[in-house]
Design goal:
By secondary structure, this protein is α+β, with helices and mostly antiparallel strands. It contains six helices and six strands; from the N terminus they run H-E-E-E-H-H-H-H-H-E-E-E. The termini are far apart.
């Protein structure tokens, strides 16, 4: 589902998306309103993760960032990934999985429509950004290690 909706978003933004043979280590590329996705990627779930990151480049990146020895380029790469994580694995989505009684990383990844590797990368990035946990609204905390969700209860004071 994510892959089709991301393809639709790309079309709306006038971004061409092509699946074609690429070097095995290259899963996707973005340049000048065109995304190339490695045709060898076996599932639409993984293609969605790749396409989300490449769309992240559209929204967050400027110029040629292929030289990853340049810290400025690495920062732009991280921003594009962050965009993809927030898009496909929002903290609210982890809470929704908890509320749906989904257990384990495999089932959470399936619930969110991402690969387990992408889910873990998103969790690692959130942990780098927020620390060991993050508040989601005023009712939940997502705990990143071990991955869990806690529901907050506010004590009622009597008057």
């Amino acid at each position: 589902m994510h892959y089709e909706s991301l393809l639709k978003e790309a079309r709306q933004r006038r971004i061409d998306v092509h699946e074609m043979p690429l070097l095995p280590a290259t899963k996707g590329l973005y340049a000048e309103r065109t995304v190339w996705i490695n045709r060898a990627i076996p599932t639409n779930t993984e293609k969605a993760c790749i396409l989300a990151e490449e769309l992240g480049h559209y929204y967050t990146t400027t110029g040629n960032i292929l030289d990853q020895t340049d810290v400025r380029n690495r920062k732009q790469e991280l921003r594009a990934r962050q965009w993809a994580y927030e898009r496909l694995v929002p903290l609210e989505g982890i809470v929704d999985a908890f509320l749906a009684r989904v257990k384990g990383r495999h089932e959470i990844a399936d619930f969110l429509g991402v690969t387990e590797e992408f889910l873990q990368s998103a969790i690692d990035r959130y942990k780098d950004r927020y620390g060991l946990y993050a508040y989601v609204g005023d009712k939940h905390i997502v705990i990143f290690e071990p991955l869990s969700v806690a529901e907050l209860f506010v004590a009622q004071t009597s008057r």
